[in-house]
Each structure stands twice: as structure tokens, then as C-alpha cells.
Amino acid sequence: MEAIGLNHYLVLSAILFGIGLYGVAARRNAIGVLMSIELMLNAVNINMVAFSRFCAPDQLHGQVFTIFVITVAAAEAAVGLALVISMYRNLNKINFDEVNLLKW
Amino acid sequence: MSETLQQLAFYTDAAMIVFAALMVVTLRNIFHCALFLALGFFGIAGIFVMLHAEFLAGVQVMIYVGAIAVLVLFAIMLTRGVTGQDMKQTNKQSPVAGAIALLFVVFLLKLMAGARFATSTVAPVKDSTAFLGQLLVTRYVLPFEVASIVLLMAMVGALLLAKEKEDE
Amino acid sequence: MTTIANYLVNLLHLPGWVSAWFVALMAALVIFGFMMGVVLVLIWLLRKIFGFMQIRLGPMMHGPQGIFQTPADALKLLAKEDVIPDRADKWVFVIAPLVVFVPAYMVYVVIPFGEGSRFIAKDLNIGILYIAAISSMAVIGIIMAGWASENKYSLLGALRGAAQLVSYEVPMALAFMGPVILAGSLSMQSIVKAQTGGFWHWHFLQPWGLGLLGFLLMITAALAETNQVPFDLPEAESELVAGYNTEYSGMKFGLFFMAEFANTFTLCAITTTLFLGGWHSPFPHFLDGGWWSLLWFLGKSGFLVFVFMWIRATYPRVRVDQLMEFAWKGLIPVGLFYLIAVAFFAVVV
Prior knowledge:
The complex is a heterotrimer of chains A (about 100), B (about 170) and C (about 350). Chain A is mostly helical and about 100 residues long. Chain A is built from three helices and no strands. Chain A has helices spanning about 5-25, 30-55, 60-90. Chain A is elongated and about 50 Å long. Chain B has two domains: about 1-80, NADH-ubiquinone/plastoquinone oxidoreductase chain 6, subunit NuoJ (Four Helix Bundle (Hemerythrin (Met), subunit A), Up-down Bundle); about 125-170. Helices cover about 75% and strands about 0% of the residues of chain B. In chain B, helix 2 packs antiparallel against helix 3 and helix 5 (about 130-140) packs across helix 6 (about 140-160). Chain C has twelve helices and no strands. Chain C has helices at about 1-10, 20-55, 70-80, 90-105, 125-135, 140-150, 150-185, 190-195, 210-225, 250-275, 290-315, 320-349. The longest helix of chain C is centred in the first third of the chain and has 36 residues, at about 20-55. The chains are: A mainly alpha (about 100), B mainly alpha (about 170), C mainly alpha (about 350). At the A-B interface, helix 1, helix 2 and helix 3 of A face helix 1, helix 2, helix 3, helix 4 and helix 5 of B.
């Protein structure tokens, strides 16, 4: 096996993204979906930092991007979970496939 | 010798992260899923340390494990009554979702196998924290300020959404 | 320690990289031993100080002045039956004390006990950030403990405890930032080195006396972070049975207990490093350096621990809504003011 290079990190990031994608599409529980979204965002973070480390190690653009992704992910998790709690209070359901009031 | 150790560290960490991610999307008890998510975040912090991004590793643990995972756990505890402990957790489209996710991953891997990335062998920055700090207030100052506004909006929004209804 | 490791490696003909791991292992064991010692001494000290402040004698039975009381208590905890409630979530219940204890131990890696690299396990260049990050991991352990106990009191205690810990992390981080700005680095040894020159250069007096504000802020946040009175709601013994500890007995409870005392010493040590000059002596060149630095560090941290216990024996407990209000509406504005003032003085003056 050769030394750990860019491709190793990219493969890890791709696998993580795929698992997150499956979670978003297949989970019933609203909080489960939110957790899968966080997984996908983390996969993107790994990708950014790996590229920053291997392609331009003296300029940390990837890491700055990652800082902003973490910030926005935190904001989005807060609002998303507030929405889930509000949904639970009003409809008493947190499974996404039961929340179908707008369906025709 | 340090190369083998590096490989050992990477593969162990990657295995832990992938295992934690699989547990997050498959377990039925959602509390356990959240705990595995925290474990995955911690593993990703390890990956950041390996990539010479130690400030990001610290920020990852502090924000993701210390705040977001806690937030998820709070939300699970507050919506407790409806989640049966062992209800089926996947909806009707899960086989299709699985197939599409798998196809997507294969597609990404094929893309990466064929690409030639312009890797450079310049020495990495010694102290990423100071460098990041300078970048954030010189070149990236506008996104920095906008990020603070985004956080303020998220705080106010979450407060309003999660507030108990006051009697009219 | 490095010399011992190299000697052993050459003796046993092991490959060269073993010595680095050996040094790390030795450092970990020394820190673990120190932490256990600190916990034992602190528990005894707490009971003695409480005793004297309440005009009684404290533990006197076992050993002179009761110094064997804590080992006796530890033995008792070890010998207790390990009870797991029937409906509890078994794995989460068992792992929760570890998730609270391990971060308390991990923080010791970056505490600078004395001058030079001999007295600090590893001077990470993100020292303070590492401390803030690892301390925030303990919140998950408390939530796990409360949830897995399947007990209303535990759950309430855990929710309150987690809310308190998360709320007071922000003023603590803001208080951390003052010394970091003055020192220009996140590494612990650099922060201590920025306080050379005797008493008047320590950060708690530094930017024209504003450091006092930061120091008080740090002490208040540290009291809340370690669940000490007046912020000890999660373990309010008269309200919630024992909060998130209710269902825990035996060594698992012992782990929670040890983690709390270890955390107390850690935060006092960090406050000493950041604000009271770390291992420097108050006089510029007298009794400074080498093994004296260890003495000064332990002395100052011990003094802060005594102050914490003094406060613990004196003040009543705040209510949970007063606690949250105090953090968000009181300490955070003060912290922000402190941060901006220190930054202003560092740049302009």
C-alpha cells in the first residue's frame, strides 16, 4: 500500500456522502434525516480540507471554506431541529411519511 | 516506519467513521443513532488532524460534538413520546434510495479514478490557526461578517419556531 | 523521560519509533497517577474545609486527621454491587460515566505544570482550543447518563446539567480569549511565557486592570462548568435526589465523582495558567524556573481550589432560570465587553 494520498481522503469522503444520501432519502424519522444531512456536510468538509492540503498547502482556502460550512451547518441544524420540534408540537408526528397534509 | 503508522491511523479512523455513519442511517433506536453521529464527528476531527488542519479539528469537536450533537440529543429527548423504541425506520423508497446512493458513489469513484489533480509538494503551513485568522480578516472578511449575520438569523429563527404558543 | 526511553530502546534493540510511544505512555501514566492523587487529596480537603468552616472537625477517624478517609471511600465504592436498572439502556448506561471521565483526563495533556517541555505532556499549538473542545464533550456523557437511567429525576437533572454546561461554555470561551489575545498564541506555554516579569505582568491585572474582569468571568464560568455551588443544580441533593447520578452506584458513580473533582482541579489549573501567571513566581527573578515553577504552579492552583471550596461552603444555590438568565444576559455581554476591550488595548496601546 502506498502512502496516504489525496485519493484515500476523496474515497472516504465519497463513501460518507453516499451513506448520508441514503439516510436522507430512506429515513422516516425527521431527526434521522437531519443527522444524515450533517453527515453529508461533513463529507464535503473532508473533501475541502484534503484538497487544500494536497493541492495548495501554503494557502488555506479549503480550510476557510470548511469553517464557513461548519458555521452554516450549525445554523441549519438549529433551525431544522426547531422546525422538527414545532412539527411535533402541532401534529404530534415526527415521521416524514406521515406528514402529508398537503398531499392531494 | 512512520508511513505504516500513518496508514494504520488513517485506516482505523476511516473504518470508525464509516461504521458510525452506517449505524446512523440504519439503527432503529434514534438515540443510539445520535450517539454514533457524535462518534463519527470525533473520527472526522482525527482526519482533520492528519490533514494538518488542527484548528479545524478543534473547531469540529467543539461545534459538532459539543453543540450540534447535543442539540440533536435534546431534540430527540423533547420529541420522545412518538418514537417507539423499535419502530421501523426506513420508508417505502428505501431500496430505490439505496440503489441511487450506491450508483452515485460508484460514479464519484470513477470520476476520481480518472482525474489528474494538480497536487503540489510545497510544505504545509506551520501554524494554521494564525494563518486562518489572517485570511479571515483580510481576504475573507465579507463572508466572515455575513456568517455572523447568518448565525444571528438562525438563533432568532430557531427561538421563534420553538417557542411555546402563548395564550392570546 | 526521553533519555530513559532511549536507553531502554537501545538496550532491548527495539526500532527507533518505539521510544516516542514509550515516552507518550510514560507521560500518560504519570498524568493518570497525578490525577488520581489530586482527586484523593481534593476530596479529603473538601471535607476538611467544609468541616472547619462549619465549626466541626471533618473526617477524623481513619488515619491522622482523616487522610485515609478517601481511600476508604474508594474501596467501599469498588466493593459495591453493580446495579443496572432493569429498563435502562444497558450499553449507554455503562458507557456514560466513561464519556464524562475520559475528557476530564484528556485535558491534563496540555496543562503546563512547570517551565519547559519537561513539565507538560505535549504543548499543542492549539492548547486552549483543545481544552475548550474536549470539555464540551462531557456534555454528551451527562445526557447519556440521564437518558439511559429511565428515571424522571435523572432526565431532568441531565437536561438541566447539559443546558448549564453548554450555556456557560460561551462566557468561558470569551474569558479564554483575553489571555490568548495578549499572548498572541493558543499554546499554553506561550500564554505563560507572555506573563514573565513578576506579579504586575500577570494577565489578571494586565490590560490596565481589565484583567480582573476576565479573571472574575473565568472563575464564575469555571464554577458553573464544574457544577460547583452556586451553580450545582444538576446534583442538587435536596431537589432531584442526585440529578443524573441517581441510578448510578459503585464504581460508575465513582467515575462521575472523580471526574468532577478532576475537572475542578483542571479548571483551577487553567485559570492559573491564563490569568495568574502559570508557573511564574511573583518576584521577577527570585525563586523562578526549574522545579520552583512546579511548586508555584501547584501552589497557585491549590489556592484557587481553596477559593472554590470556600465559595462552595458559603453560597446558596441559584435556581435554574436565574442560572440561565445570568449566563445569557449577564455573563455574555460582560465577556464580549472584555474581549473587545482587550483587543482594543492590544492593538492600539
